[in-house]
Amino acid sequence: MASTPEVTPDAAAPRATTRLATLEGNLRTIFGDRMKSLIVANGELTMVVSPVEYASIAQTLRDHADLQFEELLDLCGVDYEGYGEGSWTGLRFAAVSHLLSMTHNWRLRLRTFAVDDDFPVLPSLTGIWPSVNWYEREAFDLFGIVFEGHDDLRRILTDYGFVGHPFRKDFPVTGNVEMRYDPEQKRVIYQPVTIEPREVVPRVIREPGYGGTR
Question: Which CATH number fits domain 9-157: 1.20.1440.230, 2.60.120.1060, 3.30.460.80, 3.40.50.1100?
Fold first, then answer.
């Protein structure tokens, strides 16, 4: 019985490049102007779509024979406020998903932005990939992104009485309140944060000759 030849990294690289080019061509052919952009960088593809097209394009990404992204591996919220040291001029909140096709052995990053920075709303993808359920809840909890059509959109990491969304860039690092047990009331209570904000600058001591200097 013949053994399977070992695939070296050098031999695998052209295959990966060809596969990436094939996926890029398929996406451009199938979606065309429905995509806002298709970015190729670091051997990865990032597809940006409008929230209006988001659910429809996601359905096609899963079902089209030339794409077949059967699995959604992850979804996270992103807050672009202050991104690039304040150079960002686009919309603030985005949902970013990572998709995998087991059939074709390729991956895709799918990104869409909510049109309202004050009240970000995006369609839910739970009807297409059920695995996104808890990821959308996490993005809602930490970033305040509302996923329309999600049938159980509630906090998943913070407690039920938490106010605000702790991964937003304008949320204070120390938070707004803290919890403690009150022995007089015999229950857990909230109170204003007692930690004073401060910046700690580390002291760096370099030995003589450090880095080759004399």
Answer: 3.30.460.80
